[in-house]
Design goal:
Layout: H1 88-93, H2 95-122, H3 126-131, E1 133-140, E2 146-148, H4 150-163, E3 168-177, E4 180-191, E5 194-207, E6 210-218, H5 221-233
Parallel strand pairs: 1-6
Antiparallel strand pairs: 1-2, 3-4, 4-5, 5-6
Length: 234
């Protein structure tokens, strides 16, 4: 029988807050991981220094009790410094990382403007809506009808709020890039006592902190049906 084939049972013992790692197979003298700050005077190897250590592998025989060969082995160290990766510099200080951070910060400003614009709509504050528009602001509805001018659109929003006094938009998700904000959600309200609601998407072009273009993509059929009923009754 060889020394490294001697098996011992491992029993739980009190260690007084010390790491117990005594049940192990015979091998070359070495340090345990818990002793990395203490010099091993038997083989003069310290784990603070990267070096190769021999490790004996466990055998294939299996026991129902704890197996001594399963004692922890110190993994092999690599004393050679590896070369930097091809894009190591870019990952830390490269232009790509800076560009991503810059784009993220820049996208937050248009989103903030869009959020303020949406809040002004939900507050039915036509004056605040107009204040967030550029002078040449363009509004495009779901049928591609275009209205240009902040003053004209301020009057248009006042008229719409009068027709639909509880008009609200609910935004579920927002994406932004290069000053363009895309949002999806729902819009709805009540016209002539009839409630309506429809899935809606919005596109806003932000320029200098203001909305230069506001485009609505929605199925306006519910609104048109209510308006058509109003015309027939009149």
């Amino acid at each position: 029988m060889k020394p490294n084939q001697v098996d011992v049972f491992s029993f739980p013992v009190l260690g007084h807050f010390e790491q117990i790692d005594e049940a192990r197979e015979t091998r070359l003298a070495h340090q345990l991981v818990s002793d990395i700050v203490k010099l091993d005077r038997l083989d003069r190897i310290d784990l603070d220094f990267a070096f190769f250590h021999r490790v004996t592998g466990a055998h294939f025989d299996v026991r129902v009790h704890p197996y001594a060969n399963a004692a922890s082995d110190v993994s092999i160290a690599n004393p050679l410094a590896k070369a930097l990766g091809e894009h190591h510099g870019e990952s830390l200080h490269g232009d790509e990382a800076k560009r991503r951070i810059y784009n993220y910060l820049m996208s937050m400003k248009p989103v903030e403007t869009f959020t303020q614009f949406a809040a002004a709509i939900n507050n039915h504050d036509a004056k605040a809506i107009a204040a967030l528009m550029t002078a040449d602001h363009v509004f495009v509805d779901g049928l591609a009808n275009r209205v240009q001018g902040a003053a004209v659109m301020e009057a248009g929003w006042r008229g719409y709020f009068a027709m639909c006094p509880d008009y609200q938009i609910r935004i579920e998700q927002v994406l932004a890039e290069d000053g363009v904000v895309l949002a999806v959600g729902e819009a709805g309200g009540t016209i002539d006592g009839v409630s309506w609601q429809t899935p809606t998407a919005w596109k806003a072009v932000i320029r200098d902190g203001k909305v230069a273009e506001f485009r609505v993509f929605a199925d306006n059929k519910p609104v048109y049906e209510i308006l058509a009923k109003r015309q027939r009754s009149s």
